[in-house]
Specification:
Blueprint (H helix, E strand, L loop, with lengths): L9 H18 L2 H14 L3 H26 L3 H8 L3 H32 L3 H17 L3 H27 L3 H9 L8 H12 L3 H11 L8 H31 L9 H10 L3 H26 L6 H5 L1 H19 L3 H25 L3 H4 L6 H30 L1
Helix pairs in contact: 1-7, 1-10, 1-11, 1-13, 2-9, 2-11, 3-8, 3-9, 3-10, 3-11, 3-16, 3-18, 4-5, 4-16, 5-6, 5-13, 5-15, 5-16, 6-15, 7-11, 7-12, 7-13, 9-18, 10-13, 11-12, 12-13, 13-15, 16-18
């Protein structure tokens, strides 16, 4: 008789779902909604192929990072410093800078969500969202509250989008067929690397891993638990993308013409009628608010190992991060150049950090007698190459914008 697998306790289950949804909702932000809609409009049913390939690459990246970080018990910047002295500081700089810039966009998205639902000035809505996010980290047992809030917001987005998908009556058969037989497979390259960067690029893939480390789910004995959480996180994001893809495909198949200014909103309006804009506002607010929480928490976690102040006053650092992001949008507006720079950083951070993790997986000083599977390393290399390409493309577009 083999040994029985240890049962997952209620507290561990809550932690698992918390880390899953922290990662997933960090990925499902305003940019996620727009990218998925625009690519579906461009490639129609064939975009299903890109989604499936991206999910496979995402799992390879996330499994490598979550497993190695968990076994070592060290956060991403600490692992990078072990691989090459000083690399962790470089990684932390880009993570925090990119996370801050993206958070300004997330706060803006929350403001637009309030505007769509209640007609509030987006800046007032952004201030309300910022205050709510800050409240989460100030209350007692704030991490538990964060876990619950991200789960509720994530489930809300998925349920609403599933309803819109059903209402839009997409051509399921055509989508299933084009998943395996896309019309222009070579044209899918840029969409694939773009949505990979948006799902596991920058701070996003570290969100759940750092949450598990903070909760003490480390060491080889927890590797199965961590692997399940990593896979479920990517699959949760994938489910949301598939539902939104099918919803967009459905309205397009009925002859809808999407708005250039706000493509996702026009999908909801076409499918649901007059109330569609308010419903989209709920989804946008949930996506933006959960991303604000995830970006602030994860970015601050990259500072914790550099000085006792950042570790001891972690919640204060998170609050300052959210306050600054909210004030920039509220009083200055959306800094487009900064967001474009952050997009370039997002594409370059993952190959840097994942490359360091792959090297760390062979360092006994970090992982002890743990043997990282070769197939995971191969998938990790694929993810490094893919995201490096999108980073280069982002920088190329930035240079063109700058010179133009």
């Amino acid at each position: 008789m083999g040994q029985e697998k240890p049962k997952i306790t209620a507290a561990q289950r809550r932690l698992m779902f918390g880390s899953i949804f922290l990662m997933a909702t960090s990925a499902i932000g305003p940019a996620f909604l727009t990218q998925t809609t625009v690519f579906t409009e461009q490639f129609l049913a064939s975009f299903a192929f890109a989604i499936v390939i991206s999910i496979i690459i995402d799992i390879g990246a996330q499994l490598n990072i979550w497993r190695v970080l968990s076994v070592s018990g060290k956060r991403g910047q600490e692992v990078a410093n072990e691989v090459a002295p000083g690399l962790g500081y470089v990684v932390a700089f880009f993570i925090v800078l990119g996370g801050l810039a993206f958070n300004i966009g997330n706060v803006a998205g929350a403001g637009l969500g309030f505007n769509a639902i209640f007609g509030l000035d987006p800046r007032i809505g952004a201030a309300i969202a910022g205050a709510f996010a800050i409240f989460i980290f100030l209350v007692k047992n704030g991490r538990t509250v964060m876990d619950v809030v991200t789960q509720v917001l994530g489930a809300l987005m998925i349920m609403i989008t599933a309803y819109v998908m059903i209402q839009s009556s997409p051509p399921y058969g055509e989508a299933a067929y084009r998943t395996f037989v896309p019309e222009e497979p070579l044209a899918m390259f840029i969409p694939i690397v773009t949505i990979v960067g948006g799902t596991v690029g920058g701070y996003i893939t570290f969100a759940g891993a750092h949450r598990l480390i903070e909760a003490g789910m480390t060491g080889k004995e927890n590797i199965r638990f961590v692997s399940h959480a990593a896979n479920y996180g990517i699959l949760t994001t994938g489910v949301m993308r598939v539902l939104l893809f099918l919803a967009v495909l459905g309205v397009l198949s009925q002859g809808a013409i999407l708005s250039d200014e706000n493509p996702p909103a026009s999908v909801f309006q076409f499918a649901l009628g007059d109330i569609g804009m308010q419903v989209f506002g709920v989804v946008l607010l949930a996506a933006a608010l959960s991303s604000v929480i995830g970006a602030a928490y994860t970015s601050a976690s990259f500072l914790r190992s550099f000085h006792d102040f950042f570790d001891k006053h972690n919640n204060t650092v998170i609050v300052i991060f959210i306050v600054f992001s909210t004030l920039v949008f509220t009083f200055v507006g959306r800094p487009v150049t900064l967001l474009i720079l952050a997009g370039a950083f997002n594409g370059l951070i993952l190959p840097l950090t994942l490359g360091a993790v792959l090297l760390a997986s062979r360092k006994k000083k970090l992982v002890g007698d743990y043997r990282h599977p070769t197939w995971m390393i191969i998938w990790g290399v694929i993810a490094v190459i893919s995201t490096l390409i999108i980073g280069i493309l982002s920088l190329g577009g930035l240079a063109e914008l700058w010179t133009g």
